[in-house]
Amino acid sequence: MTSQLVDYDSLIPNNVGLADDPKLRRALEAWHPGYIDWWMSMGPEGFQVADVYLRTAISVEKDGWAKFEFVKMPEYRWGILLAPPIEGRTIPCGEHYGEPAWQEVPGPYRAMLRRLIVIQGDTEPASVEQQRHLGSVAPSLYDMRNLFQVNVEEGRHLWAMVYLLQKYFGRDGREEAHELLQRQSGSDERPRMLGAFNEETPDWLSFFMFTYFTDRDGKMQLEALAQSGFDPLSRTCRFMLAEEAHHMFVGYTGVARIVQRTCEAMNEAGIEDPYDAEAVRALGVIDLPTIQRKTNLHFSLTLDLFGSEESTNAANFFNAGIKGRYHEDRLDDDHRLVSDTYPVTKLVSGLLRPVEVPALNGLNARLRDDFIDDCQGGVTRWNRSIAGSGIEFEIRLPHVAFNRAIGEFTDIDVSPTGKVLTREDWKAHRDGWLPTSDDKTFVETLMQLEVRPGRFAGWISPPTKGIQNQPEDFLYVRLP
Ligand SMILES: [Fe+2]
Ligand SMILES: [Fe+2]
Fold it and tell me: Taking a C-beta distance cutoff of 8 angstroms, is the pair 80, 160 a contact?
């Protein structure tokens, strides 16, 4: 099998030699109709027959891996693509450090691996479900196209995890693959597995925040799984990361364009006080404090996805060599961590302070800290643009203990700056820190469909350049 070449002519484009694996091919072909049913009933609502300018992966090489063309989403070529193998790759962490990477599921870790793959797989269709109503209020054809690009790629990520389940986990893999199409974001009976994936994405500000923060959690998880000693998982995740980068680009630039438009409108109108929400909103743009409250919400919800700060599961995954740290292969230590410690923020006698815990138990906290560093870059650039417009306002990431529902800080109330509060104090300030129903109603009034080529809703600036350098008035989505 030449892994770089993608068999593009079969029903399921792939570089995993599906043509020579009839059993797997049959299993995937049996799963396919259910997937299409799911896409038609839970995917982007109202745009299934539109022609969308989408990229499709056609190779796994670093350059030229994608082609761009008009496709109807239900006809998108969802494929199974693994990054090229790394010659002589070894297990990068834990007890088996340095042994050859596994090409088959290691028996003792089968259940753990399956669980990791199912949890990752569950997030992919969840976000498509969360975003399914956004097409009908897209601020431009450019943005609509980006939404659909993210959606089809999350669909492909589901395929990626389903491939691993079907290929390596036999009957229970098939059952899990089936279940992935049964759970539904926000459902009372069968919700998605993780909290943030059951929240609504009611408007485009939420969408951009979600793709900036929550897709970045996805990136961190994929980075950690790309360090798996189970090589098929590693290769799958490495290729998914190439797609994930665009999702975070959509989020980063989306918020940046909203911020830019708000600042421009304020300057044109001579409004200096960013907290004069009434005056700013009267201009038809989103006031900066609302953007801060949205940041607080999406950041804190996303932190919950990293799980408890101290976790024996995380220690077991690492010890087993099936999930590594962020950039494990670039870290300079013994990759076993048996006698190391890691500082984890905890509540000690009423104060939040770092406490050294065994490094193996603190791996969730560590990945979360790497995530926070990764988030800061874009926030700094948003702030540079605000400062550049001469407006005094800074968007800040809230403290790690703010508004948390999982782990160490679940039962305490903490301000965005990290001050431990009484319940009453929290309640008194809550509406200044998290989106209010008033914010939601206001943002909803701005959500109007704009489909004239080259035109953008008044609350968001045009992008600096088009997808594939297309001109500003390019018809990214051809509506029927
Ligand atoms: Fe994804
Ligand atoms: Fe994503």
Answer: yes
Whole-number Å distance, alpha carbon 435 to ligand 1 midpoint, is: 26
Under DSSP, is residue 277 helix (H, G, I), strand (E, B) or coil?
helix
Instruction: Pick the ligand that lies closest to the CA of residue 210.
Output: 2
CA–centroid distance, residue 31 to ligand 2 (Å) = 22
Consecutive H or E run containing 52: strand 51-57
pLDDT at 4 over 80: no
Measured in Å, residue 79 CA sits from the centre of ligand 1 at: 14
Q: What is the dihedral of CA 250, 40, 80, 479, to 10 degrees?
A: -50
- pLDDT tens-place string over residues 124-145: 999 999 999 999 999 999 999 9
Percent of the chain exceeding pLDDT 70 equals 99
Confidence of residue 3 (pLDDT cuts 50, 70, 90): very low
Band of pLDDT at residue 61, cut at 50, 70 and 90? confident
Question: Which pLDDT band, with edges at 50, 70 and 90, does 1 fall under?
Answer: very low
Structure confidence at residue 2 (pLDDT): 42
Q: State in Å: Cα 218 to ligand 2 middle.
A: 6
Tokens 């990290």 label which residue? 418
Query: What pLDDT digit, counting tens, does each position of 266-305 carry?
Result: 999 999 999 999 999 999 999 999 999 999 999 999 999 9
Tell me which residue has tokens 């002589």: 88
Q: Three-class SS string for 201-253?
A: CCCHHHHHHHHHHHHHHHHHHHHHHHCCCEHHHHHHHHHHHHHHHHHHHHHHH
For residues 229-238, average pLDDT: 97
DSSP per position, 301-355: HHHGGG--SS-HHHHHHHHHTSS--TTGGG--S-S--TT-EEEEEEEETTEEEEE
The C-alpha angle 252, 380, 325, rounded to 5 degrees, equals: 75
Q: Are 38 and 48 in contact (CB under 8 A)?
A: no
Cα(309) to centroid(ligand 2), Å:
24
- 114 and 209 Cβ atoms separated by less than 8 Å: no
For residue 428, the one-letter residue type is: A
Instruction: Give 222 Cα–ligand 2 centroid separation in angstroms.
Output: 10
**DSSP letter, residue 418:** S
Closest CA to 324 of 397, 228, 244: 228
Mean pLDDT of 379-408: 98
126/195 Cα distance (integer angstroms): 11
CB atoms within 10 A of CB 234: 24
Give me the mean pLDDT over the 218-247 stretch.
96
CA distance 242 to 238: 7
The structural domains of the chain, ordered by start, are: 31-478 (1.10.620.20)
